[in-house]
Structures are given as C-alpha cells and as structure tokens.
Amino acid sequence: MLEQITAEFANSFSVVSAPVALARLSAAITLGAVIGAEREWRNKPAGLRTHILVSVAACLFVIIGQELSALQFGADGEQRNDPLRMIEAVTAGVAFLAAGMIFKADGEVRNVTTGASLWLVGAVGLGCGAGRLGLAVMATLIVVAVLSLLRLLENHSRND
C-alpha cells in the first residue's frame, strides 16, 4: 500500500514537476514575506503570515489549474481550463479578504494600503504559480520601494 501511495505522489505532477512546484511555492513564500514583513514592521493588521498565505494560495491555484488542464474532462479540443478564470477567482477572493481589512474609525478610513498590499501579493503568488518569477520579483521590489519611499516622504513632510 505504501508503494502505491509513493507511486501516486511520484506521478502526481504531470505538467509541473515536483521540484518546479516547490521552487514556485518557495518563491511565493519569499516574495509574500518581503511585502508582509514591511506591513508587519508598520504594525498593520495583515502582516507577515497573512501575506505569505495569500501569496502561496494564489500560487497554488495556478499550479492546480495547470494540473487540471492536463486532465481529460471531455472530448479532444474542448476548452478545459481558462487561465483568466483562475486569475479572476484569485483576485475576487483576495479582494474580498482585503476589503475586510479596511474600516472606518473616527471618520477616517484605515488599512487601505494593507488591503491593497494583500491584493497585490495575490498577484505575486499568481506570477510565481505561472512560473513568471522575474515579474513577481520585480513587482515585489517595486512595491516595497514604493511603500518605504512614500513612508519616508510622509514622515519628512510631517516634520517640516
């Protein structure tokens, strides 16, 4: 029985090999953590763990979508998997989560940036899942630079 389970696991990655899937998931963890660490450092409600989970989930959705597209669900030539639907599903789900982070207190809207960073980290995870690591890394670096530089400018303008 153990041999059968081992054989199933060994053959379970028909489109994306296990090492490639691990690399993509690891990239999603790392890049989600970079953005999440910035939010954590700012003591925001969605920090390191939340951003990692969103990024890994988005990555996993893409990998699973690629795997499902290889399965036989109908006659040859039928569309079995629409990549745009995967993106729509992830963005809608993450947008729902991000919207829950935003609230109004004392007439002031709070956590909009945290909500936006969660939405963006979903896109980073999608990029990792699709194997577009360079694009995901560029987006992560841009986001962290923007968040950090704008924070410095805000602090500088408050001190003037």
Task: Please explain how this structure is put together.
This protein has helices at about 1-10, 20-40, 50-70, 85-100, 110-130, 135-160; strands spanning about 105, 110. The longest helix is centred in the C-terminal third of the chain and has 27 residues, at about 135-160. It has a two-stranded antiparallel ribbon with strand order 1-2. Helix 2 (about 20-40) packs antiparallel against helix 3, helix 3 packs antiparallel against helix 4 and helix 3 packs parallel to helix 5. The protein has one domain. By secondary structure, the chain is mainly alpha-helical. The protein is built from 6 helices and 2 strands, in the order H-H-H-H-E-E-H-H. Helix content is about 75%, strand content about 5%. The termini are far apart.
| Largest β sheet strand count, sense and barrel closure | 2 strands, antiparallel
Strand content: under 5%
| Helix and strand pattern | HHHHEEHH
How many strands appear in the DSSP assignment?
Answer: 2
Arithmetic mean pLDDT: 80
List the helices and strands and how they pair.
Elements: H1 2-10, H2 18-41, H3 48-70, H4 83-101, E1 103-105, E2 108-110, H5 112-129, H6 133-159
Antiparallel strand pairs: 1-2
Helix pairs in contact: 2-3, 2-5, 2-6, 3-4, 3-5, 4-5, 5-6
Q: Main traits of this protein?
A:
160 residues; mainly alpha; two-stranded antiparallel ribbon; 6 helices; 2 strands
In short:
The chain is mainly α and 160 residues long.
